[in-house]
Recover the amino acids of this structure.
């Protein structure tokens, strides 16, 4: 059994981790922390976990996290970089679901996240946890930086194209939409029901903090710099991401076959038949990315549609997938939940 702890389990990614780990046949959940909720039963805060999880939130200062094999950080940005190093030094492996270790250029990270980095040495050692790209690195990692939700959808949608070098890498466009749970479990005016419901808007068009993460990943895949225009939108739904991706064709190819061969054998990427239009409901609560390709009017622009659940393949599910790889377990273990419909 893998002894697991969770730091910061009161947010949406935290409860999603709990939902998945409570069903995992090889996981023993031993601790979950929250300063504000210490002493509260997890099932009192999240009734969906009643009779499935018998744990109470503990103060992180007193929780015995060093006895764990692995600790997940489901915390706001800036927490893991201060707390994870002590666990890593004690031999505990760590998966951070926030952004503290994703961007290799520390100065760039500090510019986008507005704080000084407390553990730049661990940034260099961290492995970026996109399994479909670096399964080997993840298997040996002590610290995994779990990708963001938008970056997961955009990178999986573009990856076969940038790896093959068949599109113009200087003019990629990602037009993305996310449900309100992507903003986290906190009270903010833009995500109040009366603000987000019956509404649709773009945001952070001048620059979103996921942009450097996506560019870093795509540039690594392409082995050269990649130019990307990234525009996120907020949609009036709870969960789900829909990414409409545009790439100008440089070298003609059988693009459907390119995607099917690249993702053949990947349990959590589903390349749909030609002409398909994936919707977010088809991946709701599942650790899955569905992808479809279009070439409008047989022109020079390829359109890739990619959908994920932002809390599962875009966060907690991918983190469990990474855990399975790190501990030599079957990658799909504990992650075969079907999408929920309607």
């Amino acid at each position: 059994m893998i002894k697991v702890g969770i730091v910061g389990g009161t947010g949406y990614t935290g409860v999603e981790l709990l939902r998945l780990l409570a069903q995992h046949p090889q996981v023993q959940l031993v601790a979950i922390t929250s300063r504000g909720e210490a002493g509260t039963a997890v099932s009192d805060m999240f009734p969906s976990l009643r009779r499935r999880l018998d744990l109470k939130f503990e103060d992180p200062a007193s929780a015995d996290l060093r006895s764990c094999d692995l600790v997940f950080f489901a915390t706001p940005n800036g927490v893991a970089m201060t707390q994870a190093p002590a666990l890593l030094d004690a031999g505990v492996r760590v998966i951070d679901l926030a952004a503290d270790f994703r961007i290799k250029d520390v100065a760039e990270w500090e510019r986008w996240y507005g704080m000084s980095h407390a553990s730049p040495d661990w940034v260099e050692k961290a492995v970026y946890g996109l399994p479909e790209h670096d399964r080997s690195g993840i298997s040996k990692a002590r610290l995994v930086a779990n990708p963001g939700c938008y970056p997961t959808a955009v990178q999986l949608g573009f990856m076969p194209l940038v790896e093959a070098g068949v599109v113009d890498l200087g003019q990629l466009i990602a037009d993305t939409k996310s449900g309100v749970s992507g903003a986290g479990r906190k009270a903010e005016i833009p995500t109040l029901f009366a603000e987000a419901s019956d509404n649709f808007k773009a945001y952070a068009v001048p620059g979103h903090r996921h942009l450097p993460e996506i560019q870093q990943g795509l540039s690594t895949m392409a082995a050269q710099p990649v130019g990307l225009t990234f525009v996120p939108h907020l949609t009036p739904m709870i969960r789900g991401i829909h990414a409409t991706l545009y790439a100008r064709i440089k070298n003609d190819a059988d693009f459907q076959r390119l995607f099917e061969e690249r993702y053949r054998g990947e349990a959590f990427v589903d390349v749909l038949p030609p002409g398909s239009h994936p919707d977010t409901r088809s991946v709701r609560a599942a650790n899955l990315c569905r992808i479809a390709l279009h070439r409008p009017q047989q022109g020079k622009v390829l359109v890739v549609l990619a959908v994920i659940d932002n809390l599962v393949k875009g966060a907690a599910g991918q983190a469990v997938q990474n855990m399975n790889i790190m501990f030599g377990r079957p990658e799909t273990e504990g992650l075969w939940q079907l999408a929920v419909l309607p």
Observations:
- The chain has a mean pLDDT of 96.
- The first strand starts at residue 2 and ends at 7.
- The two ends are 35 Å apart (CA to CA).
- The chain has two domains: 2-125, 150-310.
